[in-house]
C-alpha cells in the first residue's frame, strides 16, 4: 500500500499558517519541527509541513475527508475565526454548503490563500471497469 506521508506547504508565515490550520482542524502542531518547518499533524501518518517563503505563492488545493461531526465542528471553528466559506470551488464566500456525491463539502482560502476543502463523502475513487 502507498500512503501519503507529508506535504510541504509554502507560506508567508509558517508559524501563523500552521497554527491557524491546526486550530481549524483541531489537531496538534509543532512550531519548529525539523527546524525550518511548522508541522500540522493531520493524522498519525500525515503531516502538513509549512515552510516560510518570500517567493510567489501559487494557489494549492488541499482536501480533507472528515466525519459529519468533524465537518460541523470545523464549520463552527471557521465561523468563530471569521473565515468565510462556500459550497463551490470558485465564487464568493456565501456560507453555502455543497452536497457533492451524496455528502457535504465546503471550501475556504485561509491560510495563505490556498484552497482548503473538507468533505464527508470522497469522490476520489478509481472508476470500476466492466
UniProtKB/TrEMBL annotation:
Q: Which domain of life is it from?
A: Bacteria
Q: Which CDD domains match?
A: ChaP_like
**InterPro entries per UniProt:** Glyas_Bleomycin-R_OHBP_Dase (IPR029068), VOC_core (IPR037523)
The segment(s) forming the VOC domain are 3-121
Q: Which PROSITE patterns match?
A: VOC
Q: What is this protein called?
A: VOC family protein
User: Could you tell me which species this protein originates from?
Assistant: Massilia jejuensis
